[in-house]
Structure formats: C-alpha cells, structure tokens
# Entry
Amino acid sequence: MNIFRILADLSHLASIGILIHKIHTSRSCRGISFKTQALYVAVFVTRYLDLFAGEWVSLYNTVMKLFFIGSSAYILYLMKVQFKPTNDPSIDTFRLEYVLGPSALLALIFNHGYTFIEVPWAFSIYLESVAILPQLFILQRTGEAETITTHYLAALGAYRALYIPNWIYRYYTETVGFDPISFVAGIVQTALYIDFFYVYFTRVLQGEKFELPA
# Structure
C-alpha cells in the first residue's frame, strides 16, 4: 500500500469522524444532505458485496469495508431518528433519479464482467462520483455552510482526489492494470469539488465564513 492510498483512507476516515462529531456536538444535522448520505450507504453496500461472496484480501481491507458500511448507516440513523427534527427536507430537493439512473446504465454498459460482484461494483464507482451532488445543491441553495461542515466536505473531497495519484503510482509500480472506470470516475468526482475548494481555501482557511459568491 502506497502513501497516497494511506492518506486517502485517513482523509476518508477523518471526513466521517468530523461529520459524526458535528452532528453530536451541535445536536443537529442542519445543512447536511440526507440524500447524499443515503447514496453513500448504497455506494458501500453495492461495492462491498465481495465481503459475502468474494475472496479474502486482508484484515485491514475487511475492517475498513465494514466500518464504511456501518458508519454510513449510523449517520442515516442520526439524521432520520435521533436528530430528525433538525433535518430539513425542504432544502434537500435534488432529484436522485438524475444520478441513480445514469449510474445504473453506465454499470450495465461499462464494467469488468457481468457478474454479481462486478456490475454492482461498477455501479458504486459511478454513483460515488456524483453522490456529493445533493450536498453541493444544498450549498448552492443556501449559499453558506457551518465551518465544521466545510471541513467534512474538504476531507471527503481530498479522499477521492488522493486516489488519483494512487492509481497513477500503482500503474507504474505494480502489476495491476490501468482501471479506466475508477480513474475517470475519480476525475469527475474531484472536478465537482473545484468551486467548493476555491471558496474553502480562500475564505474558510483564512478564518472567514463559508459563503458562495453572489
């Protein structure tokens, strides 16, 4: 495992920790998209079907997969049960069919094999690349976000961005072949964060409030 993969996984873990911490300390899920979190549950469940039907990779691999599924489901519980009164569906209005349909179609066309594992895996890759859209849609509608929410989004964006050099490094140093599905999806996902990162670096990290330009 190379440094880029380690940093990416740590960034992903940090994003989940920040989000759960934000919800518990503020006792509110205000500004968090339930739809984005539901999409992430779908991403992890469909990606990690190999836990039940695939080959053993490593203890690290298995623990991380179980953690991502469990923590994502726990966040849904916090938003839908424990802190439900603070969840505002009136601003979380992104149409999920806009991402679910195309992701399913791409998975049926472009995959590594028409099997119980490979088609859902491809679907999860395509879906993850756009799962953040409902959250970004909320930011666009409200024009602002709490600082800790922006830290969560920054860590989440950094996680996927770090996977790009990871794939490049593995291509030149390992025997694994180039995976265009993961690479292209990673590029798309990272590109969606460009506007957010610009505001994050120029305002939030300078001690100012996150506000989108008028």
